[in-house]
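> forwarded from #structure-qc
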């Protein structure tokens, strides 16, 4: 028997509603401040590719497609556009020249740096209105949440219930 989403959330951590509210506020803030927080001149999907390649330099197109849950032609088109814009470089893998590896260019690195800087400055301003204790608690909680989300068993469990 499958549990409904309501059944699952009733037994979840008491912090789930607060975290959900934070995510909604972040979505609204990014929407309202698209010029300040947006990913222009790249799309959100293209920026996601840059984040993945940054975390996994030398990743190949197949692995990138799995991360994006996207078909090979879509991944190829995304990389074509990023390469044409100067944000991504494709090179043959030294161990197997038939396989292509992906790396960020200086422009790609600079784009992510600028994006992070703008977003961090906005967060810094918002968090300056919090007490130091609340800031530490938030940092600790978010660090733990990131670790939980990054845990592969969480992803596998989520897929099994979908």
């Amino acid at each position: 028997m499958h549990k409904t989403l309501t059944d699952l959330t009733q037994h979840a951590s008491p912090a789930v509603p607060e975290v959900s509210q934070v995510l909604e506020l972040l979505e609204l803030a990014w929407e309202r401040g698209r010029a300040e927080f947006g990913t222009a001149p790249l799309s959100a999907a293209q920026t996601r590719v840059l984040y993945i390649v940054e975390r996994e330099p030398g990743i190949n197109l197949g692995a990138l497609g799995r991360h994006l849950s996207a078909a090979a032609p879509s991944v190829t088109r995304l990389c074509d556009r990023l390469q044409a814009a100067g944000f991504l470089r494709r090179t043959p893998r030294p161990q197997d020249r038939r396989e292509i590896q992906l790396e960020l260019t200086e422009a790609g690195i600079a784009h992510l740096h600028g994006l992070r800087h703008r977003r961090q400055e906005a967060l810094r301003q918002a968090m300056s209105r919090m007490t130091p204790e609340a800031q530490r608690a938030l940092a600790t909680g978010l660090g733990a949440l990131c670790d939980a989300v990054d845990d592969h068993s969480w992803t596998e469990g989520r897929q099994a219930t979908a």
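QC bot note: The mean pLDDT is 81. Residues 106-127 form the longest helix (22 residues).
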